[in-house]
Design a protein that fits this description.
By secondary structure, the chain is mainly alpha-helical. It is built from 6 helices and no strands. It starts with 8 loop residues before the first helix and ends with a helix.
């Protein structure tokens, strides 16, 4: 998704939240190819959360005294979501429990996004200039470019963990994606 250079980090992340919510709604309603929709959801969530952990949460935690507790709660929610997403991925879209697990996951992700938008994103808008928020969007895009495309909950949710483990995992994930896609093309 190519975005204008003047878009700020809050606009960027909120647009991704809407995209995630749309994918969740499609999956829950049974619209479209369930396997392809879930694959896209996994990729988007993994990249989005990794970039937030690297480029957004550390800045928000330093923005105001006491903000680190609020950011810590969002990180905890994201770590639980990584585990839940990894479990859904392992379960597979054809498993009889997938739809029920997905519904619970979707509710948790939606609640998390609302808290993030109302608390953390509002804090960013209050504490930083438009120019700083635009520069943060560039940092998020750079982090997304080297982020894993699958959840890796055992790596943790710290910026350091993402910086150390993210690029090698991203390469591995992208190689697996390419092999999977090549096999699908070969089967047709």
């Amino acid at each position: 998704m190519t975005l204008p250079a003047t878009e700020d980090v809050v606009d960027l992340l909120m647009a991704q939240h809407r995209q995630i919510e749309g994918l969740l709604a499609q999956l829950k309603s049974g619209q479209g190819d369930k396997s392809e929709l879930f694959k896209e959801l996994v990729r988007l969530l993994a990249v989005h959360e990794s970039a937030e952990e690297e480029a957004v949460h550390p800045v928000a935690a330093r923005a105001r005294f006491g903000a680190d507790q609020m950011v810590g709660q969002r990180r905890d929610e994201e770590n639980h979501a990584k585990c839940a997403l990894a479990n859904l991925y392992d379960l597979g879209v054809d498993h009889p429990d997938f739809d029920a697990e997905l519904a619970a996951f979707a509710d948790a992700v939606t609640d998390h996004a609302r808290r993030e938008e109302n608390e953390e994103f509002a804090l960013l808008r209050q504490q930083f200039s438009v120019h700083q928020l635009e520069r943060m969007a560039g940092s998020v895009r750079a982090a997304e470019a080297v982020a894993p495309t699958r959840p890796h909950p055992k790596t943790g949710e710290s910026p350091l963990a993402n910086l150390l483990a993210g690029p090698p995992l991203a390469i591995f994930d992208r190689m697996r994606d390419a092999v999977r896609d090549w096999r699908r093309e070969d089967d047709t």
